[in-house]
């Protein structure tokens, strides 16, 4: 019997905390407030219907911030990209973040379950376009002329690739949640799926998140210290 070394299947979930040291504010740090609106109010389809200019302004501001030269991937993003190389196709990275720092650090097998800041989607034919500059309500789809919206999953909308995510959770040996407060579902429930699959579940965070008791292991500290250490 060839003694093939066992390569574990790893699923990683990241949240806003992994991008904090790159200079992108987390949701809890801004305590969910933006221009005296709660994020849950502006980041909703109803909020967009009510006041598309306000919501476009919210995303234009974050798009501009993300493209400033000082916003760079940090050691935690790079450690995950290196781990993906080492695990040769046995690592799936799911991010709740809408920034592009994981891609810029080299991660390939990546799902943006809450969408991407640097993309827009046609409200009529669902075509998706890369988008670097400000979007206004007068921008239209090149294919069908439909109006465009941020390619972002708002509260009350279904996150992307949920089937692929649940399949990976049911087959994983390790589930590692990094920099997420465990407030937002369905992402906050992934640890239970992984526990159900008898995976080793690990929380790497600045402080205990809401789902702390569901994790079998936990290491606290800044992501740029804890993640490279854990992924060694
Ligand atoms: C859905 C895009 C159903 C927008 C986002 C009542 C109870 C339970 C659930 C619900 C409920 N009412 C409504 C719901 C469902 C709702 C939800 O969960 N609401 C919450 C607020 C209660 N969820 C949804 O609506 C989801 N959709 O349920 O659909 C459905 C079913 C069928 C058919 C149709 C629909 C959609 C949710 C997606 C919303 N969109 N993002 C945008 O970005 O503008 S969520 C948004 O929140 C971001 O993605 C972000 O990632 C997330 C915030 O969470 P975190 O990433 O965890 O960030 P946070 O700031 O909270 O935490 C940061 C952590 O990092 C902290 O723990 C901190 O300690 C740590 N940290 C800080 N610095 C560091 C660090 N760690 C390490 N190092 C550091 N340096
Ligand atoms: Zn279109």
TrEMBL record:
Record-listed NAD(+) binding positions: 15-34, 96-99, 179-181, 205-207, 223
Co-factor(s): Zn(2+)
Class in the EC hierarchy, top level: transferase
Family: Belongs to the sirtuin family. Class III subfamily.
Xref: SUPFAM superfamilies: DHS-like NAD/FAD-binding domain
Protein name (record): NAD-dependent protein deacylase
Alphabetized HAMAP family for the sequence: Sirtuin_ClassIII
Gene behind this protein: cobB
Annotated Deacetylase sirtuin-type domain residues: 1-232
UniProt-listed PANTHER family: NAD-DEPENDENT PROTEIN DEACYLASE, NAD-DEPENDENT PROTEIN DEACYLASE SIRTUIN-5, MITOCHONDRIAL-RELATED
Main subcellular location: cytoplasm
Entry text on domains: 2 residues (Tyr-59 and Arg-62) present in a large hydrophobic pocket are probably involved in substrate specificity. They are important for desuccinylation activity, but dispensable for deacetylation activity.
Catalytic activity: N(6)-succinyl-L-lysyl-[protein] + NAD(+) + H2O = 2''-O-succinyl-ADP-D-ribose + nicotinamide + L-lysyl-[protein]; N(6)-acetyl-L-lysyl-[protein] + NAD(+) + H2O = 2''-O-acetyl-ADP-D-ribose + nicotinamide + L-lysyl-[protein]
Source organism per UniProt: Testudinibacter aquarius
UniProt xrefs under NCBIfam families: PRK00481.1-5
Keywords: Cytoplasm, Metal-binding, NAD, Transferase, Zinc
Residues annotated for substrate binding in this entry: 59, 62
Subcellular location(s) per record: Cytoplasm
Enzyme Commission number, as recorded: 2.3.1.286
Gene Ontology terms: cellular component: cytoplasm
Active-site annotation: 114 (proton acceptor)
Function: NAD-dependent lysine deacetylase and desuccinylase that specifically removes acetyl and succinyl groups on target proteins. Modulates the activities of several proteins which are inactive in their acylated form.
Record has Metal-binding as a keyword: yes
InterPro entries: DHS-like_NAD/FAD-binding_dom (IPR029035), NAD-dep_sirtuin_deacylases (IPR050134), Sirtuin (IPR003000), Sirtuin_cat_small_dom_sf (IPR026591), Sirtuin_class_III (IPR027546), Ssirtuin_cat_dom (IPR026590)
Cofactor binding annotation: Binds 1 zinc ion per subunit.
CDD domains the UniProt entry points to: SIRT5_Af1_CobB
Binding-site positions, Zn(2+): 122, 125, 141, 144
């Amino acid at each position: 019997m060839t003694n093939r070394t066992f390569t574990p299947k790893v699923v990683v979930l990241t949240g806003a905390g992994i991008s904090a040291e790159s200079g992108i504010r987390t949701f809890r740090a801004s305590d969910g407030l933006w221009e005296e609106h709660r994020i849950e109010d502006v980041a909703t389809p109803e909020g967009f219907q009510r006041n598309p200019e306000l919501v476009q302004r919210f995303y234009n501001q974050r798009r501009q911030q993300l493209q400033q030269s000082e916003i760079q991937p940090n050691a935690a993003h790079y450690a995950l990209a290196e781990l993906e190389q080492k695990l040769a196709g046995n690592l799936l990275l799911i991010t709740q973040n809408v920034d592009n720092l994981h891609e810029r650090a080299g991660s390939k097998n990546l799902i943006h379950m809450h969408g991407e800041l640097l993309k827009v989607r046609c409200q009529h034919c669902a075509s998706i376009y890369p988008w670097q500059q400000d979007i206004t309500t007068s921008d239209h789809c090149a294919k069908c002329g439909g109006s465009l919206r941020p390619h972002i999953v708002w509260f009350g909308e279904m996150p992307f690739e949920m089937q692929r995510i649940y399949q990976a959770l049911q087959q994983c040996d390790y589930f590692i949640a990094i920099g997420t407060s465990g407030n937002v579902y369905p992402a906050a429930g992934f640890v239970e799926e992984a526990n159900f699959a008898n995976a080793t579940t690990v929380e790497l965070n600045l402080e205990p998140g809401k789902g702390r008791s569901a994790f079998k292991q936990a290491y606290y500290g800044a992501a740029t210290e804890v993640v490279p250490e854990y992924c060694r």
